[in-house]
Amino acid sequence: MTAQITEATIKELCDVAKLAVELAKRAGADDAEVLVRDGSELTAKVRLGEPELVQEAGSRALGLRVLRGGRRAVTYTSDLRREALEALCRETVTLAEHAEPDEFSMPPDPRDLATSVPELDLYDPAVAEVDAAWALKQAIRGEAAARGHDPRISNSEGATWSRVLGASAFATSGGFVGGYRGSYASLVVEPLCDDTTETTPKKRNGHWWTASRFLAELEDPESVGREAARRTTATIGSRKVDTQECAIVFDPEIARSMVGTIFSVANGSSFWRKSSYLLGKEGELIASPLVTIIDDPLIRRAPGSRPFDGDGLPTRMNPVVQAGVLCPVLCDVYSARKLGRASTGSAGRGIGGNPGPTTSNLVMQKGATTRDALLKSTSRGLYVTSLMGFGFNPVTGDFSRGAAGFWIENGELTFPVSEVTIAANFDEILKRIDAVADDLVFRSSTSAPTFRVSHMMLAGSTAGAQ
How many Cα atoms are found within 13 Å in the side-chain-facing hemisphere of 206? Predict the structure, then answer.
């Protein structure tokens, strides 16, 4: 079975979006915006060599936002028949009439809307050709490689191969109509091992994954499984270390979550709501000069790329942090108006919601040193491979989270560490970054290389590394 999304699919969705805009105007809307999405998902999971889940589903939905008399309302439906859309438009206009007026919720100036939809090569027909039987075989191969890599791998949480195919169309009463399609596939392997180094034996878990918009760019299942096993068994013998102040090195998997935290306080919505410790610091040094972060929606084949934003504006590359200096924060039309500025073309929206600022490909730029060289230059500290809990206050910048990883001694990873907490103000964390590696990989829409923070407080035990 094939689930191909064709150019004809995009045209069909655009036609539906245009029709809904027209119907909303006829129903009395001053302005209307319509988002239509069509997609399918396939998930195939195995555990201990046997299929555990095979699930394939498709969906098509339409989201409508109308503006009338300075008031707005948002609704959505999965029924795209004309008569159903006519009823939806009437009901939505009625809802808008009962909403509170909002002077900032007007649509974009039509002159600012995108006039073209650049081709970014975001869709791979080969992904759509994958059926459940093939996906199960990939998951079985990945899990088998993990279980066979080391005798200490005694169990498994399974392996999951999945794919997502989607098409989006957007139309506004301001004159914009556009659509595009995309694909994404991934394999995750999650083995378990026995840790008998303690009085009470424990199960240790780990994982590894590969993902891309293009099937040929995925790592082979065996290499994913072996790396998952290596990462899992490496945690055997984990222990605490002394409470101390030391260097903290963030593995790329964790570094990207730290970059995502930066955006959570460097966007137009958090600024106009005054819920960010970075408020008022645009144009100031808020991080080490080694830190440059960009948001670029126009990278061909990248996971977060998109040709236009959720307001119908053209997307563009925006610097977020340039050599440590905070750039103008990412805004959609609404948050930009609240702040008295222009949109950065960074709006995102779901089927049933209003637009808001979001990222596309949020990337911390790589440095000039290798990961191995960065580690060798670290005399003592923690290499973080996992963070637990959520301990970040966006208003004060206070950061404190549970962590696990490996102890660094004289430039070498020595033994696994768990059940510790790392803490500092996020402002201090960013300014103390003193080394950035060159191991940047685009597996997800937020990416970062390995980087080191010169010192943070590590809370552990009274008996630690010697």
Answer: 29
Residue whose tokens read 């394939």 = 56
- Backbone conformation region of residue 37, classed left if phi is above 0, alpha if psi is from -120 to 50, else beta: beta
Q: Predicted confidence band at 164 (pLDDT cuts at 50, 70, 90)?
A: very high
Q: What angle do CA 312, 316, 317 make, to 5 degrees?
A: 150
Q: Phi/psi zone of residue 442: left (φ > 0), alpha (ψ -120 to 50 degrees), beta?
A: beta
β-pairing, 202-205 vs 208-212, is unpaired
List of E strands, 134-221: 153-172, 177-195, 202-205, 208-212
Domains and CATH numbers, the chain: 7-231 (3.30.2290.10), 238-466 (no CATH)
Q: Tokens for 99?
A: 């909403």
Q: What is the pLDDT of residues 302-342, one digit of tens each?
A: 999 999 999 999 999 999 999 999 999 999 999 999 999 99
242 has which bridge partners?
461
Q: How many CA atoms lie within 13 A of 178 on its CB side?
A: 21
Q: Is the pLDDT of residue 199 over 90?
A: no
Q: What is the SS3 assignment for 231?
A: helix
Taking each helix axis as running N to C, give the angle between helix 132-149 and helix 221-233, from 0 to 180 degrees, rounded to the nearest 10. 40
> What's the rounded Cα separation, in Å, for the pair 4 and 7?
10
Amino acid at site 127: V
Is residue 337 classed as helix, strand or coil in its secondary structure?
helix
What distance in Å separates the CA atoms of residue 32 and residue 220, rounded to the nearest whole number? 46
Quote the tokens at residue 216: 């040929």
Q: Are 26 and 92 in contact (CB under 8 A)?
A: no
Q: Is the model's pLDDT at 61 over the cut of 90? A: yes
Residue 110: pLDDT over 70: yes
Residue 3 has pLDDT above 80, yes or no: no
> Is the pTM higher than 0.90?
yes
Determine whether 284 is exposed, middle or buried from the number of CB atoms within 10 Å of its CB (0-12, 13-18, 19+): exposed
What SS3 state is found at 93?
A: helix
CA distance 461 to 401: 16
